[in-house]
Amino acid sequence: MVLDHLSTSWSVFQALFLEAMPFLLIGVALATMARHWLPSGPVLQCLPDHPLLGPLTGAAMGFALPACECGNVPVARQLLASGSPLPTAMGFLFAAPVLNPIVLASTWAAFPDQPWLLWARPAAGLAMALVLSTLLRLQQEVNILVPNLLRERGFHQPAGTGSLLERSAGLIGSSSPVPLPLLPTRRDQSWRLSVLHGVDELVKLSSLLILGCGVAAFLQTTLPRDWLLAVGQAPTLSVLALMLLAVVISVCSSVDAFLALGFASQVTPGALLAFLVLGPVIDVKALGLYGTVFCRSAMVFVALSCSVLVLLAGQWTNALML
After folding, report:
1. Membrane-crossing residues (predicted)?
2. What value does the mean pLDDT of the chain take?
3. pTM of this prediction?
4. Which in 25, 105, 224, 278 has the greatest CB count within 10 A?
């Protein structure tokens, strides 16, 4: 019995890891190219810092880049490290897993007879990204981002936008701190540094992904799903049950629509939407990757905010369609 459980857990772990790893590789590759071509972030600093235009721009970038919740984290982190405005990077981080073309196509392929999902899922994902980006923009970056990311980001901020301690440059008491100049490097040396940084980031993110997939596989094979689906027709409990299921299963957003197809007829429309919106943003394996961007308190804030927003969206959908 124990061996069967371990064998099942190992199979689930392999499936989750092999499913997520290609997108993580794509994300790290994109982040490495961004680090090489935009080392000082002059273009990224021109992106909008507006509470509405910023997240919309990031969401548009998410539509152009086929990154799921594993691949978008390294790209979003590089955007922040290179000086991108916080709203734009957050819009990409939260909207990309739902708005990329692969996810939209898989949703259409899985639910061709439910056209409301084809617009409700991206609309809910975009709305959640806008709200989260706005809420995070109201806070100081030092209370949101991890220290090493803040240090990288500080070197790419325009002169005079931060204090000495925030930028780690200049002289104590200087009224106009100036960033330390970057030493010129040849193109091949620049590529070598970018690749080495990418490899280091890949190793760190892969270890976190392995940990997340292991936890997700254990929970998925230990917690019974029958009691989650038993409340499938209750307007509120069904939404909560499918939210929990999305977090535990931790399936990639590119294929989660086909998984949802298996129990779509047993749950309410709001619960189905909640599963398809929350899973791509918050699940067990993604939380470890978020640790490279957000500090612990910010991660809790993001998780709770996402949960509340998705619950409200699910409830509103049930009120309209039931």
Report:
1. 12-31, 89-110, 116-136, 202-221, 227-251, 258-282, 288-313
2. 79
3. 0.76
4. 278
